[in-house]
Amino acid sequence: MSWVFLRDLLSGVNKYSTGIGRIWVAVVFMFRLLVYVAAAENIWKHEHGEFECNIKQPGCENVCFDHFFPVSHIRLWALQLIMVSTPSLLVVFHVAYRENREKHHNQKLYKNPGKIDGGLLCTYLISLILKTGLEIVFLVLFYKLYNGFTIPRLMQCDIKPCPNTVDCYISKPTEKMIFLYFLVATSCLCIVLNLSELSYLIFKYSTKCYLKRHVKKQQ
């Protein structure tokens, strides 16, 4: 899978972000995207082939694997990375709209098309809310699908066509659990950063509006 588009998207958004937003981009790019591509993807690459049960009943192993792993960890992480980065496109599109509007009218309509104010501020806040919501949704989804953030060494399966309760084993459970905790922790960090940036922008522009009204009353 090529991640060039996502990398370019994050680089483009970085130009219009606040300081906290740039930290978020760095965390997503360095601690999530690079770790995913460089290490995590290889660890789960052959998860089905390395899943073993102590029985050779045809179909039993496949059914047990599907029961314990209804969706692949690695594919769900890839989807999560794409989905939480997509709302940033709203900001890029809004800036592009401002620039195109200036070209169409052939005059300077904004002091800086990339400055977070007015309509762009609303778009930026919406993107932060969407990113935070998607992060939480995926964490809950992970927890529900896999019964917690753990990788058990042994799983017992009694689903048909298995003739009785069989023991199934996952390869490299400790290594997988370390990466699972790391990726969950970085996801939680991104939620904290998004909420911090959201609070910062609301406080900043609320204070700005209050001061403007105060000055008008004084005049």
TrEMBL record:
Broad class of where this protein is predominantly found: other
UniProt subcellular location: Cell junction, Gap junction; Cell membrane
Domain spans labelled Connexin cysteine-rich: 134-201
A GO term, aspect molecular function: gap junction channel activity
Any GO CC annotation of this UniProt entry: connexin complex
Signal peptide span: none
Keyword entries, A-Z: Cell junction, Cell membrane, Gap junction, Membrane, Transmembrane, Transmembrane helix
PROSITE patterns for the chain: CONNEXINS_2
Keyword Methyltransferase among UniProt keywords: no
Annotated TM spans: 21-39, 77-97, 118-143, 178-203
Assembly: A connexon is composed of a hexamer of connexins.
PANTHER family: CONNEXIN, GAP JUNCTION BETA-7 PROTEIN
Family: Belongs to the connexin family.
Name this protein carries in UniProt: Gap junction protein
Species: Toxostoma redivivum (California thrasher)
